[in-house]
Amino acid sequence: MNDFFGLGVGQVGTWLLVILGWLLVVWNSNRIAGRSEARKICDQVIAQLNGLRDEISKFLNESHDAYPQTLPEDVILYAESRLTSYISFAEFLSQQLRAVSYIEPLSPTIFSRLREDFMHDLELFMASSRADSLLQKAKILNSLNDTLLISAEHIEKEYKTHYTDMGVIKSLGRTLGDFISRYPRSVGLLIAAMALIGAYRSSYFVLWCSSFQ
Amino acid sequence: MHTITVVKDWFPAPFGRYPRHSPYCGQNFRTQLLVPALNAHDLVHVNLTGYNRYGRSFMDESFGGLVRDEGFSFEEIKRKLKISHDLLPSLEELAWDRLKKAAEDTANKSR
User: Which of the 8 DSSP states describes residue B17?
Assistant: First the structure.
């Protein structure tokens, strides 16, 4: 009477604890690996955005002097070729954050603004006279730095919320919540099965307890 | 719905605004592929997936040019055109921004 499926209660409890312990170890190592992967991607996004700023600065410093005989539209095309890969790569990495972490990627609007507004500003810069070019340059760099700082701030804030500030218990709760929301039917079936087994076994359990009296 | 997959139906790495920049420029894409498709079908899906470095010039000439040079209205394009990129949603926004800008410019000119 005092056994569960041929095992003593103590043995069942021991095995359950071993399995639960291993599940916790695997979950925690996954959590740490996920955190470091997210950190790596965050750093890469920020590096790409910094690269974009450096490239734009370089372009602004050379454009008026370097291409005196060239049509402005060709210079813009040249600028696009130099800058687009940074923007696309940063966006691609940012989108990857959603797949590997809980971090919300940067809004597509930020990248579309980088593609759209900065090229427009560069067009204005190319059209401006040398006398006004410094002012245009300052405007472009100010606006660019604002966008990049907002982006970096968003990424760091998200990382802090989801990884640095989140304790183990909260993180475990989130994982369980994710699991339930991802597999609601399986969890429902599991709970129903456990309830049935529990109901079936409870009569034996009561008898088992009463055997000690 | 008619689908144009740019990297398969046009060129794997489209570049430039005018034919003097590249034979696979925005203007040629618009006149040779996009406009005939829009005239022949009720709904056209332009799938940009497969290439990640579309320049603003290419996008402006391809999509903005529909309103600026081909006589389509913005509302008509909105009804008939679907643009997507699986990895870089900002390119879709950029295309619609260029279309809106072209519509604004055309409206300002006609005033």
Answer: S
pLDDT for the residue A131: 66
**Residue A26: predicted pLDDT:** 92
Using the CB atoms, write b or e for A109-131: b if 16+ within 10 Å: ebbbbbbbbbbebbbebbeeeee
ipTM, 2 dp: 0.85
Torsion angle of C-alpha atoms A55, A59, A60, A63, degrees rounded to 10:
180
Selection from A113, A52, A55, A74 nearest residue B15 by Cα: A74
State the smallest CA–CA distance between residue A155 and chain B in angstroms: 18
Element (H, E) at B4: strand B2-5
Tell me which residues of chain A, numbers 64 to 93, contact chain B at a CB-CB cutoff of 8 Å. 73-74, 76-77, 80-81, 84-85, 87-89, 91-92
Chain segment A90-100, per-residue pLDDT in tens: 999 999 988 88
Q: Which of A77, A85, A109, A126 to mutate to test the interface with B (most CBs of B within 10 A)?
A: A77
Nearest to B89 among A74, A87, A108 (CB): A108
pTM of the predicted model, to two decimals?
0.78
> Within chain A, which residues score under 70 in pLDDT?
1-10, 63-69, 130-131, 201, 203-205, 208, 213
Nearest-angstrom CA–CA distance, A119 and A116: 6
Tell me how far apart the alpha carbons of residues A205 and A108 are, in angstroms, rounded to a whole number: 59
CB contact under 8 A, A109 and B93: yes
- Asked if the model's pLDDT at residue B74 lies above 90, the reply is yes
Nearest Cα of chain B lies from the Cα of A52 at a distance, in angstroms, of: 14
Q: What is the pLDDT of residue A64?
A: 67
